[in-house]
Write a structure and sequence with these properties.
2 copies of one chain form a homodimer. Chain A is α/β, with parallel strands linked by helices. Chain A has 13 helices and 16 strands. In chain A, the strands form 2 sheets. In chain A, strands 7, 8, 9, 10, 11, 12, 13, 14, 15 and 16 form a 10-stranded mixed sheet that branches. In chain A, strands 3-2-1-4-5-6 form a 6-stranded parallel sheet, with helices on both faces.
């Protein structure tokens, strides 16, 4: 077997891109050894915005390009790595690479979740794979696990903590008693959150990843607009205290579950997770995905969900896979959706127990009115609490929380609308799922 | 791409073998869909000892054979699955299959740990892969993870709970306060332990798996005779109580670690694991392996370490991999050692803090004598304890335990020999490692 190098065209030399360059430098011999001397990977061209910028990795000037067309077209580039993020230029680059029959490695969850249908169609048309281990859960090999190791499993469910930023914030709110805004500021100061942390805290980063996992497991493309996503912006210390007292931990949870009729439940929201469950122990910026397959049973995959080196680890694994397929001229080993369509369970039809917090104006009759509305809807109450302050003035604003028995989420939503219309209720009620894992 | 079936020759129709037949029946369409319709797997021939025996899976009589030569030679057999266990017939079957250039899938850790050198040489010679995901940690895809997902990582360490039987026994001793023998009997009654549980409780089942993991990560064959293995037969309730009081859990731990000079530490023994570490939460028959790679960082892979369906899940994943390599005529994708030799760190040169239990005859001066021997060796004591029974007769037999600071294990062993020779010491001291994870 010959061992000339394979050339990598690296679009993006930010945190992860630099990590890829460093990992390839550091472990090039190891990779060559482990592939029986058949694979050497070399960075051939790198797309940057400003070639003059000082960077943590030094690359000869002639390897830097500013036009992605030059990168993709370069004959020295055999594999294209897309790490620029976003869904516009990144889409162009990935499309062009596939059309040039150059395998693609990407860590771009938003791109694949939003425009995967088009890209996977190109991948099929040009028989050229897209690899995306780095797009979900950083250094955790969850893509390969679901796609290859569990290929003989019907996947019953995948429940995961797949956004490290929000997990860090929730942990600091729990252990440090911080308000959301203070915990977010701390995460930003530590470099755990982006300058614009919107996608992290509003749940959409996790949702993009969950959409990719669901597409892998169930084989059909998923319309992002149909996915129920709630973030952690509304989590308050009182919620955390209440969860703690009841033996739960608050986590931003992505839940993917196949129902017996084949419909797929897919939602992301703050959830109460029982302290005894292993997911409750996933702290800080770590990620974990609990996968339940019909044969493998319960499994959990845990690790660093972001960061330079862990994400680079996944990119490098994909590069080796892409290189193997080029070297051995094997067929397509990336992922392709294998069903044209499937059914997403409307969030209204999902069921869990819930925790609901109401912002109320305290006066006699408040609890009775809320409880009456729940009773009229047939929703059982398993507990209720409002802060006891004997010296509290009449008509003070207080938080009142209810724990509700399992019910259809749609029924709960309707009932909460009725309750929100009561004149003692000051804002939209906040709902957390109590997950049975 | 054509999709004629690939024929499986299944050697062994016990628990796991039946699970493979059932999984292939249940999810054949799913596997075909997920491989783009290119792969259908069919059981062509099955090796059994007694064709007349009633089994949980029904197979037509013409598929059953009693001579493994017939199985391997059958032209309808494209891939050979070895699930008969042992290292004699299994060796013959695997060797013959490789020589016939039929890819092998096996779950036989003892075979590969004891005779891997010969078999991997054949695998290389005949360019025919051996797949063995099912040999380590049942349904957890740890082999593929180390071999492929972490291919760009230098593996710093792999620490695991990889024997479910002993983990169940230790858990029952902890939560139920049982003696070892009672917990073992319970495990046997529940079907978690073999009729002959020797390899499970003496640590060798875990050691075989650890040897395979180390070979994967470091690329050289390992002499089983050079591996330090201690089992759980000597664990007593007093040890568990002591560990609990200090904030530890007792686990049978396999430790694989690369030192800066490249030497590999590899040992299996009962260990104290800090309760806060995620491995401490791995209970019952579950397995987990914590992997630390230079790029991926800390990761953990958790799941069912044994049993019909989980192990079958891994066999099926390997079958698909083997089928792909046949379908696409790709090169070797199994594992091959990539270094002729490497250095195993002698256990004498490994270092941890330790817990040591002495069976002593209580009389004035005992603690002083033991403490003196430790002091003479320069081994620090961080704590000591002996049960306080004010009404205890003189010269009673008691357990005395010492917690020792980190020291060379060789020094500890020599010192314990000196102590064992004291006339107040009644039997060989029992040592547990206190692991820094």
């Amino acid at each position: 077997m010959k061992c000339s190098s394979l050339g990598i065209g690296l679009a993006g030399l930010g945190t992860v891109g630099s990590g890829v360059v460093l990992a390839l430098e550091r472990n090039a011999d190891l990779i060559s050894d482990r592939t029986g001397g058949t694979i050497r990977l070399e960075v051939a061209k790198v797309l940057v915005r400003d070639p003059a910028k000082t960077r943590p990795v030094s690359l000869p000037a002639e390897k830097l390009v500013t036009d992605w067309r030059e990168l993709v077209a370069d004959p020295a580039v055999d594999i294209v790595v897309e790490l620029i993020g976003g869904t516009t230029d990144a889409f162009e680059i990935v499309s062009a690479a596939l059309q040039a029959r150059k395998p693609v490695v990407t860590g771009n969850k938003a791109l694949l979740a939003e425009r995967g249908v088009e890209l996977f169609a190109l991948s099929k048309q040009y028989d050229t794979p897209i690899h995306f281990e780095a797009a979900v859960a950083g250094g955790i090999p969850i893509i390969r696990t679901v796609q290859e190791s569990f290929i003989g499993n019907r996947i019953h469910s995948m429940c995961g903590i797949i956004n490290g930023t929000s997990n860090y914030i929730l942990e600091r709110m729990t252990t440090g008693g911080l308000e959301f805004s203070a915990a977010l500021a701390e995460a930003q100061a530590l470099g755990y959150a982006e300058a614009d942390p919107a996608l992290d805290v509003n749940g959409w980063d996790a949702a993009h990843k969950a959409i990719l996992l669901a597409t892998l497991a169930y084989g059909f493309p998923i319309d992002t607009a149909a996915v129920h996503v709630a973030g952690i912006e509304q989590v308050r210390p009182i919620d955390i205290e209440f969860a703690t007292r009841l033996g739960y931990v608050v986590k931003l949870l992505a839940v993917v579950r196949e129902h017996p009729d084949g419909a797929v439940e897919l939602r992301v929201q703050p959830s109460f997770v029982a302290k005894s469950h292993i997911l409750a122990s996933v702290n800080g910026v770590f990620n974990a995905v609990a996968v339940h397959g019909d044969a493998a049973g319960e499994s959990l995959f845990y690790g660093r969900g972001a960061g330079q080196d862990p994400t680079a680890s996944s990119v490098v694994a994909d590069l080796v896979e892409a290189a193997r397929s080029l070297r051995h001229a094997t067929g397509h080993r990336g992922f392709l959706p294998y069903r044209e369509s499937g059914t997403l369970l409307p969030v209204e039809d999902t069921e869990t127990a819930c925790y609901v917090r109401f912002d109320v104006t305290d006066r006699p009759g408040v609890i009775a009115e809320v409880a009456r509305a729940l009773a009229d809807a047939g929703i059982g109450i398993s507990g209720t609490h409002s802060p006891v302050k004997p010296d509290q003035p009449d008509a003070a604003f207080i938080d009142m929380v209810f724990l509700l028995h399992t019910c259809r989420f749609g029924l709960l939503q309707e009932t909460l609308k009725t309750i929100e219309a009561l004149d003692c209720i000051n804002s939209t009620p906040v709902v957390f799922r109590i997950e049975k894992l």
